[in-house]
Write a structure and sequence with these properties.
The protein is an alpha/beta fold. The chain has three domains: 151 residues, Rossmann fold (3-Layer(aba) Sandwich); 156 residues, no CATH class; 67 residues, Rna Polymerase Sigma Factor, Chain: A (Orthogonal Bundle), CATH 1.10.1740.10. It contains 16 helices and eleven strands. It is globular. 48% of the residues are buried. The structure holds NADPH dihydro-nicotinamide-adenine-dinucleotide phosphate, 1-deoxy-D-xylulose-5-phosphate and manganese (II) ion. Its EC number is 1.1.1.267.
Length: 397
């Protein structure tokens, strides 16, 4: 579709506006004012000044933070607006655990969920219930919510932003879903690719945060290092594309130029490539199925380069195999896996546990989990609470 045929400006609600996904989305949006207009933003509230600056820059009508004094935020917005010569700007400011739900319900054409962690579940459900298109970076909400999220989704309402899933969705754009044989999810292998279980013992938080290709938030970067991120992405692929787990492969591709692939029944494989960057997945998420011109510089094919592929080392990195088990088991097992992992990641960064304690603790929590017969929001949240508490008990043992 040419620019002239484009459907016009989309309104956007941005959840997690201060994070890696959120700030990159703002760059795309402000570079394309003909396509996008932000009407609402939310963040955790760790940096109220940044939220205020974003609000004034974007002229958002609704501004929410999970924690922090809303009067202080409103006052800072007022100050910055006056400095910018926009004294008339007076958004609604909300604070508290429901702030992102309110932002998700703002009626935007597109809600981009860039919150980190399964705390993004209620905003995900709220965006779907409000009828907005959900551009989903917050994979955790889909994984823990599973069927709850899927039963809310209308056809075409959920657009994956996670790079691997955006790649698969792009490979499936031609409408050839019935002829898919396998999904091939690529993995960088993380900063410890090639390391043995023994070598991983003394890994420090700083080392775990040195992702080879992407600058991302703390949780996802740590999950890339343990390969929990890839485990979550296998479950995410299963839920998004309705492909059985035994038809979802993971291959290590350290350069991350291929973002994932789809193998078809005739033996042909389609790969989606581009530099390792989130600009294309985010811009496609905002404007699906349209492509934002110049969202990213293309690969320079005149340069010699090698793309490598290697199998996953399941012995040193058992997180993907464990994710397959919890994904197959379904119900609240994925919620328990994710919640236990979130707690372990925090404990690792607080210096309380070793890197190599993370996945075995998640394994133990999942092994001990008894899922409820019902699956609804309350049972998911209860399973998460249980898994978080149990993870701490295991770690303190
Ligand atoms: N970064 C990337 O390249 C990629 C990220 N993803 C996924 O996208 C999501 C975001 O990742 P990323 O941007 O890296 O993470 P960051 O840690 O950089 O940002 C997280 C954002 O979520 C906000 N947040 C945290 N808690 C809440 C809350 N309770 N309510 C509202 N907002 C909250 C944070 O606000 P505050 O700073 O105030 O706490 C921040 O704006 C994750 O699910 C991740 O797995 C997927 C693929 C790639
Ligand atoms: C950019 C993105 O989608 C991340 O999920 C990234 O792919 C992490 O890569 P690895 O988990 O493969 O290191
Ligand atoms: Mn990813």
């Amino acid at each position: 579709m040419s620019d002239e045929q484009h459907r016009g400006q989309r309104t956007v609600a941005l959840l997690g506006s201060t994070g890696s996904i959120g700030t990159q989305a703002i760059d795309i949006i402000t570079a394309n004012p003909d396509r996008f207009r932000v009407i609402a933003i939310s963040a955790g509230g760790r940096d109220l000044d940044l939220v205020a600056r974003q609000a004034v820059q974007l002229q958002a009508e609704l501004v929410g933070v999970a924690a922090g004094d809303e009067r202080e935020l409103a006052a800072r917005i007022g100050e910055l607006a006056r400095e910018a010569g926009r004294s008339a700007y007076l958004p609604q400011v909300v604070s508290g655990p429901d702030a992102s739900v309110q932002v998700a319900q703002s009626g935007a054409d597109v809600v981009l969920n860039g919150i980190t962690g399964s705390i993004g579940l209620r905003p995900t459900l709220a965006a779907l219930q409000a009828g907005s298109t959900l551009a989903l970076a917050n994979k955790e909400s889909l994984i823990v919510g599973g069927p709850l999220v899927k039963e809310q989704v209308k056809p075409g309402q959920l657009v994956p932003v996670d790079s691997e899933h955006s790649a698969i969705a792009q490979c499936l754009m031609a409408g050839t879903r019935d002829e898919v044989r396998r999904l091939v999810v690529t993995a960088s292998g993380g900063p410890f690719r090639g390391w043995s279980a023994e070598q991983l013992r003394d890994v420090t938080p700083a080392q775990a945060l040195a992702h080879p290709n992407f600058a991302m938030g703390k949780v996802i970067t740590t999950n890339s290092a343990t390969l929990v991120n890839k485990g979550l992405e296998v479950i995410e692929a299963h839920l998004l594309f309705d492909v059985p787990f035994d038809q979802i492969e993971v291959v290590v591709h350290p350069q991350q130029y291929i973002h994932s692939m789809v193998e078809f029944v005739d033996g042909s494989t389609m790969a989606q490539c581009g530099p390792p960057s989130m600009l294309v997945p985010i811009s496609l998420g905002l404007d699906w199925p349209h492509r934002v011109p110049d969202a990213e510089a293309p690969i320079d094919w005149t340069q010699a380069r090698s793309w490598d592929f290697e199998p996953l080392d399941n012995e040193a990195f058992p997180a993907v195999a464990l994710a397959r088990q919890v994904g197959e088991a379904g119900r609240t097992f994925p919620a328990a896996y994710n919640a236990a992992n979130e707690e372990c990641v925090e404990a690792f960064h607080a210096g309380q546990i070793a890197f190599t304690d993370i996945v075995p603790t998640v394994q133990r929590v999942v092994d001990e989990h008894t899922p409820d017969a019902q699956l609804d929001l309350d049972t998911v949240l209860a399973a998460e609470d249980w898994a978080r508490a149990r993870a701490h008990e295991v770690l303190e043992d």
